[in-house]
Every structure is written in structure tokens, then in C-alpha cells.
Design goal:
Elements lengths: L2 E2 L2 H5 L6 H14 L5 E6 L2 E6 L1 H9 L7 E3 L5 H12 L7 H21 L19 H9 L2 H8 L4 H12 L3 H8 L5 H48 L4 H19 L6 H4 L8 H24 L3
Parallel strand pairs: 1-3, 2-4
Antiparallel strand pairs: 2-3
Helix pairs in contact: 4-5, 5-8, 7-8, 8-10, 10-11, 11-13
Length: 301
């Protein structure tokens, strides 16, 4: 019978720093391995559940004696859930790792619930809040929110939990490692992500505004003769001038606001835009409207 390392199980164990591993190794060489390795017997082999770092030390120093403790689990998900909950009890975990373990626990619990035939989402929808709900009621609702409860459970602020969750879901392994190692705080990592998002949105907005300007230019060139004709005839027919103005106004407005059904344009209106970017975009639109007003006055609208 041998002890096997399951990579998926091992990935749930937050790694020790070089200094922490060295200290553990010195302790094991001096005092022996006092805590038993936890294993799960499967098909004649023992799969290591807890004690991966101690097992590495045994590999380096085969003379060290150790004990094993066998545990039974219903399935792999149950084993992983045990690993996560056992790791959550460690005192030296950084905040981001605590959030990571909590998110993994949520997924496994939801997966087990679905296996049991329970719906993924509750069938009953919470009632909509009316504007006259009391402040105390809204505060109570807030306490029931998942983010609030989870943050309180793992001993961090709700803001830190939300920012840490965003970092973990970013897929930026380098940034995650920097935060977990303490090189960057959760707030610094979150700020870095937000700045990258802002730049991407700015680039997207700039690209689409440039396209809008090109379309406006093409439109203006196609209507140059018509505008000139209308301007010449405006003394004889102010009504014709107004109709031409409306035609120009509606066409340019359509170019500026075409994003209503365009995915690329819809990026600009996402909530990820900061107040500064929104004000800047509003400014661009106001300038466009003032330009159209000037055209109207020039052609005698």
C-alpha cells in the first residue's frame, strides 16, 4: 500500500513560503512528525488528504517516523470540502487565500446541493423593496446579503471581500501571487485591475468615437451640396431649411447613439465606468449637440 498525491487535492492546500517550509522541516527533524497524515483509502491505495508538506519532508528524510489516519468520504467532492474547511482553520492564512477557500467551498456546497435534487436557485423571489421601506429594514436586508455574511465569517470587511473576489476571478495569476505573498495589498491589486479596465474602456470609447467621426464626415460630405442649396434658398423657404436641418440632426444623432443595439458601444455604458469617464462622455455628447445647434442657426432653422 502506498500514499498517492492527488494534484486536485493538493491544489486546495495553500503553499508554504520557503521560510515557512524550512521552519517546518527543522521542527520535524527536531521533534518528529507529531500530527498524523490524513489519507483516504481508494482501490488499495491511500490518497493524501492532509499533510502534504510533512509528506515532502519525509521524502527528503526517510528515517523520520510518521503515522497515518484513514478517513472515509462519500466522494471526491466531500473529500475536497473537508480539505478546504480544515485549511480554513489555519491561523496564518492571508486574506486573499481565505476568500479563495471560501469561494471554493461555496462552489462545492452548491454542487452537492444540486446532486441532491435541490434547485440551483430558490423558487421564491424576494419581494421588491418599495421606496418607503424603513432604514432599519434596509439595514437588516443588507446583513442578510451573502457578501456581508461571508466577509463577517472570515473576519474581513465586505469591501475587502468584494475586491479580493474580483482579483481571484480576474485570472491574473501573477497579480494573485503578488497579493498572496504580501507584495501588494488587496486594495492595490483591485486598483490595478480597475485601472486596466478603465484604459480598455477608454480605448474602446476612443475607437468608436473615431468611427463616429468618420461616419459624420462621410455624411457631411454627402450632404454638402444639399446644405449649400438649402442655405441659398432659405430666404425663399425657411420650411425647407428646417426639414434639412432635421434630416442632418437625426442622422448625426443616430451615429452618436447607435450603440443602443451595438455590443461594442454598450461597453461604454457599463457600470464599470467611473464618474470621471461618464462626465467626459457626457461632455462629448454636449459638444456634439451644440455643434448641431450651430448648424441649425446657420441654415436659418
Amino acid at each position: 500500500m502506498s500514499i498517492l498525491i492527488d494534484k486536485e487535492f493538493e491544489s486546495l492546500i495553500p503553499p508554504l513560503s520557503a521560510e515557512e517550509f524550512q521552519q517546518l522541516e527543522e521542527n520535524c527533524l527536531r521533534d518528529g512528525i507529531r500530527d498524523a497524515l490524513i489519507v483516504w483509502e481508494q482501490d488499495g491505495d491511500d490518497i493524501l488528504i492532509d499533510g502534504h508538506n510533512r509528506f515532502r519532508i519525509v521524502g527528503k528524510h526517510p528515517t523520520i517516523q510518521f503515522n497515518i489516519k484513514r478517513m472515509q468520504f462519500a466522494d471526491r467532492d466531500s473529500a475536497m470540502l473537508w480539505i478546504i474547511r480544515n485549511q480554513k482553520g489555519r491561523r496564518n492564512l492571508d486574506k486573499l487565500t481565505k476568500i479563495d477557500l471560501r469561494l471554493k467551498e461555496e462552489k462545492l456546497v452548491a454542487k452537492q446541493a444540486n446532486k441532491g435534487g435541490r434547485p440551483k436557485n430558490g423558487s421564491a423571489k424576494p419581494p421588491k423593496k418599495s421606496w418607503e421601506d424603513s432604514t432599519e429594514k434596509r439595514r437588516e436586508d443588507r446583513k442578510n446579503e451573502t457578501a456581508y455574511k461571508v466577509a463577517k465569517e472570515i473576519g474581513i470587511s465586505e469591501d475587502t471581500y468584494r475586491k479580493g473576489k474580483k482579483i481571484l476571478n480576474s485570472g491574473n495569476d501573477e497579480l494573485i501571487q503578488q497579493v498572496q505573498s504580501g507584495k501588494k495589498t488587496i486594495h492595490q491589486g483591485w486598483t490595478e485591475l480597475k485601472e486596466k479596465e478603465r484604459k480598455q474602456i477608454d480605448m474602446s470609447a476612443k475607437a468608436h468615437l473615431e468611427k463616429a467621426e468618420e461616419r459624420h464626415k462621410d455624411f457631411a460630405e454627402s450632404k454638402t451640396v444639399s446644405i449649400a442649396d438649402v442655405a441659398q434658398d432659405r430666404k425663399d423657404s425657411a420650411e425647407i431649411a428646417r426639414s434639412k436641418y432635421n434630416e442632418i440632426y437625426n442622422a448625426i444623432k443616430k451615429v452618436l447613439f447607435i450603440g443602443a443595439s451595438n455590443f461594442d458601444y454598450s461597453i461604454i455604458s457599463q457600470k464599470t465606468m467611473g464618474e470621471t469617464e461618464i462626465r467626459r462622455l457626457h461632455g462629448e455628447i454636449e459638444i456634439a449637440i451644440l455643434t448641431l445647434t450651430r448648424i441649425k442657426n446657420e441654415i436659418g432653422g
